[in-house]
Amino acid sequence: MIKGLYTAFTALDGAWQYQDMLANNIANATTTGFKREVAVRQSFSDVLLSRQVPVPAPLSARIQEVVGQIGTGSFVAEFSTDFAGGAFASTGGELDLALGAGFFSVETPDGQIFYTRDGRFGRDAYGDLVTSHGYYVLDTDGAHINLPSERLSVAPDGQVTAAGEPVATIQVVDFAPAQLTRAGEAYFSAQEPGVLIDGGIRQGYLEGSNTNLVEELTSLLAVQRTYQANQTILARLDGTLDLAAGQLGQMGG
Fold first, then answer.
1. What letters, b where the CB count within 10 A reaches 16 and e where it falls short, cover 33-48?
2. Among 151, 97, 115, 142, residue whose Cα is nearest residue 35
3. Strand pairing category for 62-70 and 47-54
4. Residue 155 and residue 158: Cα distance in Å, rounded?
5. Which end of the chain is more exposed for a tag (fewer CB within 10 A), N or C?
6. CB of 51 within 8 A of CB of 64?
7. What φ, ψ does residue 152 adopt, rounded to 5°?
8. How far apart are CA 253 and CA 247, in angstroms?
9. Residues in the chain, pLDDT under 50
């Protein structure tokens, strides 16, 4: 019975964490460049059940007879990010950029480097190319990009031109998925710099979230049912233990 309590508790804990993850995915279903998280659930090791049985005379020893195995619940082993691309939406914005591959490199005002596929860019008061959060977009040399006032054109390889003259080349880098750590809704950090690539930039487009609302909501309903079922099991086991404790007390009296 104690194992039953433990199994129900671990199922509740796993469902709670899974529910939080799904809720975050749903909340960011319209966040530009957002990459959804997925949970990897894993079972605890099974416990081998056995009972002691007497060995036929004249031996006085006892041996173990295997009864079977019982599971002891499951837990969320890890969360991982699904880096699949989101759908592109045409905006016509001069500084709205979508990537076919890789990540834009951006720098915060305090010097931190992040990576994102959120291409909602603009000019700041000094003419620098910045994200919607005010982070500086970096060129292939790792420098800020100062833009002229003229109409800009951005080529697929990231080269920015104005009136036919080159201005800078936007840095696009790629990583192995395991190298990236989530650092915000659509931002990631990495311990090592990425590899420069041709990101296949599309000017006038933005990449949407890769969250599938139907899939996420279906999973959320299933997780909620699992949570409720294990709540019921936990309550019944608790009630049974209370009853057993009461009966033992009467026997002792």
1. bbbbbebeeeeeeeee
2. 115
3. antiparallel
4. 5
5. C
6. yes
7. -105, 155
8. 10
9. 1, 44-53, 55, 57-67, 70, 75, 77
For Cα atoms 191, 184, 155, give the angle at the middle one, nearest 5 degrees: 75
Identify which of 22, 36, 140 has the alpha carbon closest to the alpha carbon of residue 84: 36
Residues paired with 182 in a beta bridge: 188
Q: Which residues contact 193 (CB under 8 A, 6 or more apart)?
A: 173
Residue 73 one-letter amino acid? G
Q: What's the full length of the chain, in residues?
A: 253
131 within 8 A of 151, measured Cβ to Cβ:
no
Q: What is the pTM of this model?
A: 0.73
Residue written as tokens 């990537």?
A: 99
Angle at 194 between CA 190 and CA 198, to 5 degrees: 140
Q: Per-residue pLDDT tens for 17-72?
A: 788 889 999 999 999 999 999 876 555 444 444 444 454 544 444 444 444 554 55
248's enclosing H/E stretch is helix 213-252
114 close to 194: Cβ distance less than 8 angstroms? no
Distance of CA 158 to the CA centre of its chain: 28
What H or E segment, with its residue span, contains residue 26?
helix 2-27
Q: 88-125 burial, b if ≥16 CB within 10 A, otherwise e?
A: eeebeebbbbbbeebbbbbbeeeeeebbbbbbbbbbee
Q: Tell me what pLDDT residue 59 has.
A: 45
